[in-house]
Amino acid sequence: MAMNVGPVGGDSGGSVEEQLTSAINTTPLVDVMLVLLIIFLITIPVVTHTVPVSLPKEVNQPTKTKPENIIIAVDKDGNVYWNDALADYQTVLDKLKARAGDNPQPEVHIRADKDVRYEFVGKVMTDIERAGMAKVAFIIEPNRGMATVQ
């Protein structure tokens, strides 16, 4: 910072009017900010490099419904349907256990209402796991695609 106070040499004669002039010299501040900006621009690409991994690509495939596939639907009230027939959770578990021994094992397709509570879908997933089913797919609406969880 620089500040000028009165005339040079300490002459305080009455002929020169004494003024207090204060001004901030911003040149060093700008210099420091430019240096910091350059440092950040140089170091950011080094920081953004991570472990190289090959991430999977999103694939939406049309659902291929086979007659042996099991379709379990859950409506927004938590009612469970086994191939379009209303069933309770115990019946679904018993039927899944009976079909788990089939060779080849059928796929389970879950169709859940978008407003259903996660609790009801979680119960269905637990029953599928207890029955020992290996292939589970969630049926979605936007592209008539299928997301598979294995």
Explained architecture:
A hairpin with a 6-residue loop joins strand 7 (136-139) and strand 8 (146-149). With 150 residues, this protein is an alpha/beta fold. It is 31% helix and 21% strand. The strands form two sheets. The chain has a six-stranded mixed beta sheet with strand order 5-4-3-6-7-8. Strands 1-2 form a two-stranded antiparallel sheet. It folds into two domains: 2-48; 70-149, Nucleotidyltransferase, domain 5 (2-Layer Sandwich). The protein contains three helices and eight strands. The longest helix is centred in the N-terminal third of the chain and has 22 residues, at 27-48. The two termini are 67 Å apart.
The CATH class of the largest domain is: Alpha Beta
Number of strands: 8
Helix content: 25-40%
Strand order of the largest sheet: 5-4-3-6-7-8
Strand content: 15-25%
Oligomer: single chain
Strand and helix order? EEHEEEHEHEE
CATH architecture level-2 label of the largest domain: 2-Layer Sandwich
Number of helices: 3
Instruction: Using the coordinates shown, work out and report the CATH topology of the largest domain.
Output: Nucleotidyltransferase, domain 5
